[in-house]
Amino acid sequence: MKILVLAEINNGELAEDQTSKTVSAASTLGKVDVLCASNQCSDASTNIAKMENVETVLVLENELFAQSLAESYSETMIDTLKSYSHVFAPSSSFGKNVLPRIGGMLDVMVISDVSKVISEDTFERPVYAGNAIQTVQSIDKLKLISVRTSNYSAVPSTGSANIKKIDCKGNNPLTTFVENKMQTSDRPELTSAKVVVSGGRGVGSKENFEIIEGLADKLGAAVGASRAAVDSGFAPNDWQVGQTGKVVAPDLYVAVGISGAIQHLAGMKDSKVIVAINKDEEAPIFQVADFGLVDDLFKAVPEIEKKI
Amino acid sequence: MKILVPVKRVLDYNVKARVKADGSGIDLANVKMSMNPFDEIALEEAIRIKEKGNAEEIIAVSIGVQQNQETLRTALAMGADRAILVVATDDVHNDIEPLTVANILASIALKEGPSLILCGKQAIDNDFNATAQMLSAKLKWSQATFASEIDVKEDIIRVTREVDGGLQTIDAKMPAVVSVDLRLNEPRYASLPNIMKAKRKPLEEVNPADLGVEITQRLKVIKTKEPDSREAGLILENIDQLVEKIQENVGG
Ligand SMILES: Cc1cc2nc3c(=O)[nH]c(=O)nc-3n(C[C@H](O)[C@H](O)[C@H](O)COP(=O)(O)OP(=O)(O)OC[C@H]3O[C@@H](n4cnc5c(N)ncnc54)[C@H](O)[C@@H]3O)c2cc1C
Ligand SMILES: Nc1ncnc2c1ncn2[C@@H]1O[C@H](COP(=O)(O)O)[C@@H](O)[C@H]1O
């Protein structure tokens, strides 16, 4: 058994939480190597080398990998993968983009969104928006696994792995990068925050979303949203929590003006404590909330913010 | 150009999935099945591209049981020109894996020669999010996943992708495989006249063997269980109580 983790690095910047939690899932099976492919790798590789259970950090530095475009990334990976039995990546937009492509190239099935590593060939993964958990056993020689990182804690930074540069050739005649419109924010990242405050259609407008953001800032929380809130333009797409958005499991999740559709619950029902504020006492969110308040959010949220 | 749109028949998104008592899977007997919502979005986009004069023909493909015919009739009623049904199993509980689906679609693509394949980003039953990427690799075509905006130019397609940090725009050379996300468009409903017309549109049936593809299963499903359930908690009387609960659990 030889295990490789694909680090997520966006334009030289390590997605530390996602990568560390993926290392954590992979270390269930033993020590791991981590592949660090980006345009700038020095900071990222230094940080990865400190992650516990990492043996070697393989560094592939090339301008080509700045945006981790699927074709060039997977093409170059293939050679590196040859000696490994397991490849793990976070189940983020990065992992979901590249891992199945590698599977397609090697005729190997991908095991998406793994919530638990049971043994070297057996894994648990949620299906049907988390309404069922499947245990699957893979017969492929190479296991390609994307990890539902919200199920794992980051590994401690007590390690001291080797850093090894590897050569790569490669180009990408198929796709070219045009531009990024990334959201920047001083708030904690949605997927790693201890507290998340989310707003739904009930919030009513982009301007009103400031009520949600105000409470979030008071609590040092990340801001989330339902699909309805994103579709209506109240919130940017990267705030969407749910089956087809981000999966979060903070210590505290506050759902405001969200009804609690199964697709939304799929992204947050593993939170430790769920608080819901909704004016409809019949709202399904109250069936999963530890604490509920039946009230108008426009009255309740500003008052809560004041009292905290 | 031709556009290929793979459409999957899945448990309707409004229906709560129930685990079978013996742990062998999800109960799909006598439940409402529909087109995967992401595939409706993909099909809608194909129709819009055609309406703008940038495509001549839309082919919908579904892989699974005989009943997938219904899903394909819906696709034809929405605006696909013809349909291909690949009968790969006679058991609705036998989900065909993305790798096999990709092999089948690749074989069809080589025969039909589309310039664009528009997939959903994810089937809402197995939640794999893999087929488009695998298909694109098999064909060695360009790949653009999670599209929220698509602009077809001569021989490239400009795609804005929903990624974790925000939005990313890339240019993909055609032929390309694109997987679509929720914000791309709002799918239309089929009108009654179009539903009638769809009955006369061609729907061809083929077997995987005709396409030279073997149905394999790389992931054996050993068990399906219910997730840990959450109990409904307390409805609080007033804001002060809620403030207290929030404070107890922040940084706790
Ligand atoms: C393929 C597919 C994928 C999906 N993926 C996701 C996903 O990833 N994430 C997701 O969230 N959804 C997803 N959905 C959508 C999901 O089905 C629901 O439509 C959505 O979650 C509803 O959002 P909401 O709760 O904000 O809106 P609504 O269901 O409209 O609920 C609004 C709530 O606000 C309350 N409210 C209104 N005004 C006030 C007020 N003044 N004070 C207090 N409460 C108020 C109402 O009582 C109501 O309960 C998906 C759907 C499909 C088909
Ligand atoms: N059995 C199938 N028949 C037709 N299309 C499919 C099938 N399975 C997957 N697809 C396509 O692949 C997309 C992603 O599915 P998945 O990779 O299973 O999440 C779907 O949205 C469909 O466009």
Report what the structure shows.
The complex is a heterodimer of chains A (308) and B (252). By secondary structure, chain A is α/β, with parallel strands linked by helices. Chain A contains 8 helices and 18 strands. In chain A, the strands form 4 sheets. Chain A has a 7-stranded parallel β-sheet with strand order 7-11-6-1-4-5-12, with helices on both faces. In chain A, strands 15-14-16-17-18 form a 5-stranded parallel β-sheet. In chain A, strand 16 (252-256), helix 7 (262-265) and strand 17 form a beta-alpha-beta unit. In chain A, helix 5 (209-219) packs parallel to helix 8 (297-307). The radius of gyration of chain A is 20 Å and the shape is globular. The mean pLDDT of chain A is 96. Chain B has 252 residues and is of the alpha/beta class. Chain B has helices at residues 37-51, 68-78, 98-112, 131-139, 192-198, 239-249, and strands spanning 2-6, 9-11, 33-35, 57-64, 82-87, 116-120, 142-152, 156-163, 166-173, 176-180, 203-206, 219-225, 234-235. In chain B, strands 9-8-7-10-6-1-4-5-11 form a 9-stranded mixed β-sheet, with helices on both faces. In chain B, strands 2-3 form a two-stranded antiparallel ribbon. The radius of gyration of chain B is 21 Å and the shape is globular. The model of chain B has no long low-confidence stretch (mean pLDDT 96). Classes of the chains: A alpha/beta (308), B alpha/beta (252). Chains A and B meet through helix 3, helix 4, strand 7, strand 9 and strand 10 of A and helix 3, helix 4, strand 7, strand 8 and strand 9 of B. Strand 13 (175-182) of chain A pairs antiparallel with strand 9 (166-173) of chain B, so a sheet runs across the interface. The structure holds flavin-adenine dinucleotide and adenosine monophosphate. The site of adenosine monophosphate has 23 residues of chain B, from helix 1, strand 4, helix 3, strand 6 and helix 4.
